[in-house]
Amino acid sequence: MKTFFRWFMSLTLLLSLVVPAANAKTTDKTDAAKSKVTHVQIVLFDGFDLLDALGPYESFAAAGMYSSGAMTVQLVSAEGERSVPSGLNGPALKAEAKLDPNRPGIILVPGASGKPAGDSADAIPNILKQAMKTDLPGQLKKAFNNKEVTVATVCGGTLLPAMAGLLKDRHAVTNHLGMSTLGALGAIPVEARVVEDSPRFVSGGGVTSGLDVALYLIERELGPQIANAVEKLFEYEKRGTVWRATGNEPIEFNMRPKAS
Description:
This protein is α/β, with parallel strands linked by helices. It has one domain: Rossmann fold (3-Layer(aba) Sandwich), CATH 3.40.50.880. It has eight helices and twelve strands. The chain has an eight-stranded mixed beta sheet with strand order 5-2-1-6-7-11-10-12, with helices on both faces. It has a two-stranded antiparallel sheet with strand order 3-4. Helix 2 runs parallel beside helix 7 (209-222), helix 2 (50-66) packs across helix 8 (224-234) and helix 7 runs antiparallel to helix 8 (224-234). 39% of the residues are buried.
């Protein structure tokens, strides 16, 4: 009986030492998970496309709501806090701060909204050219060089880093109207909804692809349960497989007969 009592007391003492330590480790992991916050900066420039910016903004904001603040989102501009007019004489949005390429997280660049072509001031090519005259290209270069930043682009927004020479030999997608221009600027155009060239550069093709880019990044950063909750909230399911330069390459079948 005494032997059993000594064994029982020894086991109790051992548990009293081990259990608090295990609980402390669990608490540490929980606190660490809570302290890891992914911050998203959505860049506004004169003539930006509202849907390109606001679709991702609402998605990231909802992800932050469902994750108790594990993701935050902010509207920024190259110049700092200001009212930024959208394209097609749309409403302006307020940039809350200056784009910070040194801040870890995600920087998302929307496209422009305007006439698809032409020499007028409200034509998309000229809107993008005006954005290139700001500090934005230099800030994007710093972001691409920052290993703690993921740069994401939506629709015509992919052309901005391409025009700055930042997408040479990188896989990317943009609006279908700009794919040839994307290739001429040194990028490798890929016909897909969302393209991940590397974990640090993700692009989306088409206006509504901003939702797909955002949902993919939410799933990547916070997990599928949060992404699924955002999908259910907005009653929208992420479209398309995210293209990456991995795995087996598909066989290309040329259905056109060769010219004699």
